Amino acid sequence: MLRFSTWKFIAIVAMTLAAILVVTPSMMTPAHYEALKERLPAWLTPPTIVLGLDLQGGSHVMLEVDKADILTTQVKNLREDVRRILREEKVAITGGIGATPRGVQLRVADAADRERILPKLRLLRNGFSARAGGGDSPLDVEETPDGLIRLTVTDAGLVEKTRRAVDQSIEVIRRRVDALGTREPSIQREGDDRIIVQVPGLQDPEQLKTILGQTAKLEFRLVAEAGQNPADSEELEQQDGTGKLPIEKQVMVQGEDLTDAQPGFDQQRGGEPVVNFRFNIRGAQRFGEVTSKNVDRLFAIVLDNKVISAPRILTPITGGSGQISGRFTVEEANNLSILLRAGALPAKLNIVEERTVGPGLGQDSIDAGKRAAYVGAGLVVVYMLITYGVFGVFANLALFVHIAFIFAGLVLLGSTLTLPGIAGIVLTIGMAVDSNVLIYERIREENHAGRTILASLDAGFKRAFATIVDSNVTMFVAAAILYFLGTGPVRGFAVSLALGILTTIITAYTMTQMMIAIWYHYARPTRLPI
Amino acid sequence: MKLLRLAPENTKFPFMRFRRVSYPFSALLSLIAVALFIFKGMNFGIDFAGGTVIELRAKNGSAEVGVLRGLGEGLKLGDIEVQGFGNPADATLRFGLQPGGDVAQQAAVERVREKVGNDYELRRVEVVGPRVSNELVQSGTLGVVLSILAVLGYLWFRFEWQFAVGAVIATMHDLLLTVGFFSITQLEFNTTSIAAILTIVGYSLNETVVVLDRIRENMRKYKKLGTAQMIDMSINAVLPRTIMTATTVMLALIALVAFGGQVIRSFSLAMIWGIFVATYSSIFICSPMLIYLGLRNEEGDKAAASHEVASKDSQTRDGQSGLESAEKEPPTTSAPAKKKSAQSRKPRQA
């Protein structure tokens, strides 16, 4: 008991100092720390604690790729591919390409024709799978004896496409969110078909949802004229709600041929907000051709299957740049240009979960958490003091270091501190002293049983240790499971709790033992003070 | 300096005798909890039920709860729950899942924003779609079940099987009563509540383990004592610590309830209840369970039985006989300890 090894002593003091050093910046105001950072070497400036979205304000949005949308796109592409193959191979079919729930079917009467196109149709699989071979086939090609060929997108194919859509979407979303100019957004994939977007410190969370919720597929298509084959056009809703317009199905120029888009004002229209765009070479050529051939026709700008505007082509536009006007507000023009610059999403994304906390509430939560922590810690400290006297002082010192360790742990792990996390810390303040209580009560008991002070201290620490380990392991198990199954704020709670449990072993046990050893050495008590 | 002692010293409460009362009492409470859960149900928050919560702060300083209630009708949101709290400027709206999938939920929030956005600041918006809420239910349930299994495994590995079973029964008891607590108070039950439940499970086991640890130690030390008597002695020995720790945790929790803010209040209240129940169950449920499960202090029971006439039928009677003999010739806690002190100075086997 008295022979407390020097290295252990040094280790504990060093750890405590290190913890305090790590935690200090997080306790300072950010401005102060930034100023200090410039005058200190890098190793002396640890990162500050990361606050969860519930504390600093911000948005957490979970998006899910719309599988139905992906399937629709796949079937549409499939149909085009089949049509192309038929055209290339000059194969005639009976009754057109029919639709099935997850694919297309076609009837080829001539057996020789069938033999010719089947291998080509099977090759369409390659368009689905990034991995060559392996796994289930993404596309089923069936043939019935009476000449019916059925192509079906399989589950494996859909999963593969979904996964790829998620990957592409993450890139697009990153560009969009970056354009908002926020700091440290986090964009992660979640499972097979979801993306979690977390953006701290947003002043206008609505804008985030606006720019996440749009596919932003931009198309330039001609408005159909009377006398055209109705099968070649479709009725599309107009953005301003003035009804539908017949729009040709053929897409003349696409949004992917844009190189830039910026919000601006059209002076000729009395300073109306517009979006100015610029095409790449291919887009510029194509745009020039179309506008030359179709002077006087209406040219529709279609965004996500809605007609934004359909101006008349007055003269051929060959300069490779243009303007979209659609009675936008400044904000709408700004958002649209962000979307066009970032590119279109490969599929529709639905918001399946949203948690937004305004900056005001976040600050209130921090204040509430702080107050609860101070009051809770204060009560426990006073209570330990009046119950255990000088031993209470040791327990309180250990408690102080314990809290420093938890915060240092959070900083070093880069884990976020959430409001439930603060609750976890306050709770561990109550529980951290449990180890001290276990030890002290055991010491008392041994002393009452007639042992000397030294023997009681020794036995108290030794015997309480097994109990401390057992009881903390069970608590740790609960915290670990909570961590793996929980999300967001609850996870923050689990981390605080787990860290708190780990550090009590060091602080409440080893540190207290050290302090009591030193105290015994100098005070040489004749009576146990508890 | 006179130090404060909450727990009286050297108590000799015959805890085991209370099992005749505590078991029916707990069984009744558990049944009530189950009945409440089935018939009254829980106030599931949007995490589990899906739906939307919007926290508003009136820009002019006073929220008009009546007007907000009218939104449900006006915006076709279905049942809308409006709660004021804290100060007059704040209110929360809560409404359930809108028909029409994930898109419809966002549209509903948009309608509310358009309607009240000029007069109120939207401080918090949470929308949980139907599928996400189902997943949260699954992972929450899985978490509770897994943690109990994991702890059962650990205790089995560390202690005799009776201890593990006893601990798990006590934990289930605490779990049931906590569920009952949520049902009767209609506190919102959400993912944070799952955190509360798992923490209560952890704390309950923590308490149980401390008692069991002492029982195990005393089983080796006092082979001559009857099982019930030995368990009583162990509980009495750890009683000061139990009271002390429950008090410190309570102090921390009271601070959380009073100052921690709205978001974690239901968590803190549930925890306070949980600490009560966990402390009770570790003493009155888990420990007597050891007797029912046939934990025997072999020599001790035999010795105790020889004092009694014909009491070798049931284990229950066995435990009881040990208790009665304890009353006739009560050995003090300290006396055997003194006797054994020389021997127990050796490091205890782990």
Brief overview:
The complex is a heterodimer of chains A (530) and B (350). With 530 residues, chain A is α+β, with helices and mostly antiparallel strands.
Largest interface: A-B, 83 and 91 residues
The CATH class of the largest domain in chain B turns out to be Mainly Alpha
- Share in helix of chain B: 55-70%
CATH homolog superfamily of the largest domain in chain B: Multidrug efflux transporter AcrB transmembrane domain
Order of helices and strands of chain B: HEHEHEEHEHHEHHHHHH
Whole-number count of domains of chain A:
3
Contiguous uncertain segments of 5+ residues of chain A: none
- Residue share in β-strands of chain B: 5-15%
CATH topology of the largest domain in chain B: Multidrug efflux transporter AcrB transmembrane fold
> Count the strands of chain B?
6
Could you give the distance between the termini of chain A? 18 Å
Q: Which structural category do the helix and sheet elements of chain B fall into?
A: alpha+beta
Q: What would the average pLDDT of chain B be, to the nearest integer?
A: 80
Largest sheet of chain B: 4 strands, antiparallel
The quaternary organization reads as heterodimer
Tell me the CATH topology of the largest domain in chain A.
Multidrug efflux transporter AcrB transmembrane fold
Strand content of chain A: 15-25%
